[in-house]
Amino acid sequence: MDLTAPLPTKKLLRAAGLVARLLILVWVLKAIAPAPPIVRLGPPQTVHTEQPAICVHTRLTDEVEEWKIQRTLSMVREMGAPTIVEFFPWPYVEGERGEFDWSHPDRIIRHAENQGLDVIARLGLVPHWARPPVHEKVTTFTYLTDEHFEAFADFVRAFAARYRGRVDTIIIWNEPNLSIEWGDRQVDPEAYTWLLRFAYAAAHEGNPDVTVLGGALAPTTEAEDSLYGMSDIRYLERMYEAGAAEAFDALAVHTYGFTLPPQDEPDPDVINFRRVELLRAVMERYGDGDKSIVITESGWNDDPRWTRAVRPGQRIAYTLDAFDMVAAWPWAEQLCIWIFRQPLDLHNRRDAYYALVSSDFYARPIYEAIQAYARGWENPYAP
Amino acid sequence: MTSSLFDTVSRALRWLRRHPRIALVGLNVAALLIAYDVVTRPGAWFGPQDITWRRSQINGDLYVGIDPSYPPFAEWTPDGIIGLEADIAREIARRIDTTAHIQIMGFDGLYSALYTGSVDLVIAGLKVDPAQTSWVHYTQPYFDAGQVLVSPSGAPIDSMRQLDGKTVAVEVASAGDMAAQRWSRRLGALTIERFMLPDEAMRAVQNGAAAAALVDTVSARLYIEEHPDLRMAGETTVPDGYVIALRKKNFRLAEEIDRALADMIDDGTLNAIIERWL
C-alpha cells in the first residue's frame, strides 16, 4: 500500500458528508426528545401555621418523579402542616446486605427540609436476604424473625446516624398487632418488644438526640388468640409486661373514627377516635405517663359507597374537631392525617377516599378546610 | 390534489402491468396476511379462545365478585346475598344460560380476584379506572350514582340553567357543591345553600328555602320514596356511572354480558330492579 499517494478527495468529502448528516440526525433526535424536568430546590421555605399539631402521612416511597415529591411537599407546607410521616422501607435501602442505597430517602428528606417540614420516619419491611429462601418458606415483606432483629437494628442505626439533626423521630415498625403486618403469623407483643429494644439502642447509638416511637398499633378489637391480630389495648399491656417501657421514647398511635364523631366516648369494644385515651390510660397504669403520644395515622373516609365512611362535610367537621381535641390534650403531640396523596389514583380502593389531594394534585375540599384551619382563615366549607 | 393522487395511482397501475410477477407476489402476500388475520382473530381457529365463556356454557356457572358492604346495592343476610347488584348479576347470568355463583369479598380485593380468575366478573359499584383498561373490559353503566337535581313536583327543575336567580341546596363539600360553584360562575345569579347531609338539603327544598337540591342519586331516590312531593330530574348534572368489570381476554363473555345488559336496559328489566331497591 502506497501511503504517500494523495487521498481520494471525493471519498473523503462523501464520508465527511455522511458524518455531518449523522451528527445532524443525532442533534435532531436529542432536540425532539422530551427533556427530563429539572428540579431545583429553590430558596428555603417556612411553614406558616397557627396549629403546630397538624401533620400528614405522605406516601413518597413509591413516587418516582422528583417534581412530584417537591410538589407534594410544597402543598403540605402551603396547607400549614409543619410535620410529615414518611415510610422508608428497609429493603429499598439495603436490598443486599451491607449495600446501602440512600438516594431516594436523601431526595425526600432534602425536599422536606427545603419546604421547612419536619419528618417522622417510619421504618419497616424486610429485605429478601433477611427472610428464609422462598424454596424453604414463602414469606411476606413483613416477616422478620429474631435472628435478624440485629440486622434491622443495624439499618435503624445507619438511618439515624445518616439523618442526625435532620430526622430526629423514628417509628419502629407498623401495626405489629395485625398478623398481616407481622409476617402473616400470630402476633407476638413480646417478640415486638424485643425488636424494639434492639432498634431503640441502635437508633440512640446512631443519633443520641433521636426520639424513638414504639407501637404504631392498629385500632382493633381482635381477641388475644385471634389469627388476625390482637386488640391494641391488650397488645400494649403485654408490651409493658415484656419491659417495653425502656424501649421507646414516645408512643405512636393509629386511631380512626370511621362513622363516629371524634367526641364519641372511648370504649374498649368500639373503634373510634378517642380510643387513643384508652392507650393513654394503659401508659399511665404502667407508670409511663411522662411520655407523650404521637398520633401517626388518623382520619375519616368519605367513600360514597362504604358503610364505614362519612359524608364529605362530616369528614371536614370531624377532622377539624379532632385537631382541636389533640391541641387540648397535654400528652398528645401531633395528629397525622392518613393520607396526603397517593402516587396513583386508585379509583376503586378505599384509600383514594382518605387522600387530601388527588394524584394529579387537585386539592379536595378537606385540604382547603384544613388549610383554612391551620392559617386561621374562615372555613370555606362550613355548612 | 385529486388529480395528482389520480396520476400517482395510474402510474402505479401502469408499473404493475409492466411487472406482472411482482404484482402477483404482492397480491399473494396480501392474501396471506388477510388470511392470517382472519384465522388468528380472537375466537377463530388459531386465535385466542375465551375458555371462561366455554366453561360457563358447559358448566352453566358464572362466578360474580360482590362486596356486600353497601346496602341496598349488596348486603349479606342470613338468606344470602341480596341487593340491586346481586339481582342484576343473577339476571345477567340467567340471560346467558348460566347460574350466578356470588363470591363475597372485600372491596379492595375485587380486582385481584378478577385478575387471578377467582371470579368471572365484578359488580360492586366500580367506576371506570383508566389505570386498569389494559386488561379490564368495562360494560356500560348499570346505575348512575351522580349528582341529580331534586325539586318540588309542582315546580320542576331539570337543568342548572333554570336555577339562574334562584337558590340551590347542596351537601357541603360534595361533588354537587363543586358543580354548583362552577355553575355560579356561569349563571348570572345562583345562591348556594350548604347543608351537612343530602337529606337536609332536600328538606330545604320542601321548606321553600331552595328551588332545588343538587345531591347524589342514591340519597335522592331514598328520600323521594318517602317524600313524593319531590321529584328527580331526568338526567344527572354530574354523572357517576357504576360499571361491571370483566377480563378483556374473555372477549366472548364480555360481548354476551354487554348484550344482556343492553337488553335489560331496553326491555325495562334494569329499571325495574333499580326501582325495587331504590
Structure description:
The complex is a heterodimer of chains A (383) and B (278). Chain A has helices at residues 9-32, 66-79, 90-93, 103-114, 149-162, 189-206, 232-241, 275-285, 312-328, 365-375, and strands spanning 54-57, 83-89, 118-124, 169-172, 211-217, 250-256, 293-299, 332-338. With 383 residues, chain A is an alpha/beta fold. In chain A, strands 1-2-3-4-5-6-7-8 form an eight-stranded parallel β-barrel, surrounded by six helices. In chain A, helix 2 runs parallel beside helix 4 (103-114). The model of chain B has no long low-confidence stretch (mean pLDDT 94). Helices cover 44% and strands 23% of the residues of chain B. Chain B folds into two domains: 51-144 and 241-277, Periplasmic binding protein-like II (D-Maltodextrin-Binding Protein, domain 2, 3-Layer(aba) Sandwich); 147-232, D-Maltodextrin-Binding Protein, domain 2. Chain B is of the alpha/beta class and 278 residues long. Chain B contains ten helices and 14 strands. Chain A binds chain B through residues 304-308, 311-317, 344-350, 365-366, 369, 381-383, and chain B through 69-71, 73, 107-108, 110-111, 125-129, 131-132, 145, 171-174, 177-178, 194-198, 216, 218.
State mean pLDDT of chain A (0 to 100 scale). Answer: 94
Please tally the helical runs of chain B, counting DSSP H or I stretches of 4 or more residues: 10
Q: Biggest interface, and residues per chain?
A: A-B, 25 and 29 residues
How would you characterize the largest beta sheet of chain A?
Answer: 8 strands, parallel, barrel
Radius of gyration of chain B: 26 Å
Determine the structural class of chain B based on helices, strands and strand pairing.
Answer: alpha/beta
Strand content bin of chain A: 5-15%
Q: Which CATH C-level class of the largest domain in chain B is it? A: Alpha Beta
Regions with little confidence, pLDDT below 50 for 5+ residues of chain B: none
Please identify the top-level CATH class of chain A.
Alpha Beta
CATH architecture assignment name of the largest domain in chain B: 3-Layer(aba) Sandwich
User: What portion of residues of chain B is helical?
Assistant: 40-55%
Query: Could you give the count of β-strands of chain A?
Result: 8
Shape assignment of chain A: globular
